[in-house]
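Hi there,

I know you've been waiting on this one. I reran it after we fixed the sequence typo, so this is the corrected version. Both the input and the resulting structure follow.
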Amino acid sequence: MAELPALFAEPHRRYDPLRDEWVLVSPGRTNRPWQGGEERLQVEQRPPFDPACYLCPGNTRANGETNPAYATTYVFTNDFAALRPATSDAVLEDGLLRAEGEQGTCRVICFSPRHDLTLAGMDPADVRRVIDLWAAQTAELGARYRWVQVFENRGEAMGASNPHPHGQVWAGTALPTGIAREDASQRAYHARIGRQLLADVAAQETGGPRVVDENEDWLVLVPFWAVWPFEVLVVPKRSFARMPDLDDAARDALAAILGATLRRYDALFGVPFPYSLGWHGAPFCDDADEDAWRLHGHAYPPLLRSATVRKFMVGYELLAEAQRDVTPEDAAARLRAVGSGR
């Protein structure tokens, strides 16, 4: 790999072309003494079935409904949904005060009937079933809603309310703020350059110091502009606008590299790694510019220095701009070094 610029060893800012914003990079800041808060060390020793878990097959959920005896994946409408289809669509405009109703729905996806598994621990064939369900839910909800957000929060540190392997799908009528920024950036780049922004990112980064893993169809890298310490971007090498567009080869390759990446996370500090993982594809609307969009996944894990010391987004980060304590190049090297073995 080519020698890194001397600038990277000193405090500097990096530009995120996907969201049109900057991040402050402060190399070596993890060397400062730490007497602050620490996460509770998570030790996952769970049974294959937990009779008290409201996501296990055959168990009763909080609303009194009973889960079927599902054998692979299972999806249901969230019992405490943040979005509902019958919400008012009224609009309020009073000077600077604006509000609008937001209709939508929220679903829960159980990845496996086994309580003791994670995506990292599942066989590629089982991860492929999850990907197929993500794609099917995206297609179904995209027929009605403008935005469909597939995501997983893993671990107590990321607010997961249940350790059973599961994720969520939220769909809504509005284009969320962060997605609107990604949409505008990709549209503008495509109109100006004639190519997809993320296609050019993948081409420039392949074989470089920020690549964590790659196979024939996918590239996993710590973005040049990453905010979270061990954040990764998952990008297909071929052009797919949305997850339902993925062909069989791309889905199989994604199942393999996604599981490998999550095992790298677990190996980094020797603990089940907390993260938020989600997928962004072209919005579902009449004016969607599918030619500008390339499907991609974001993983945002909070751990920074060890299994118990996380990155806190406070102070400067909340009041000024995002800041990270290790360079993306160092983070990628550490993830590559731990390997992805089962």
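Quick highlight: The longest helix spans residues 248-269.

Best,
R. S.
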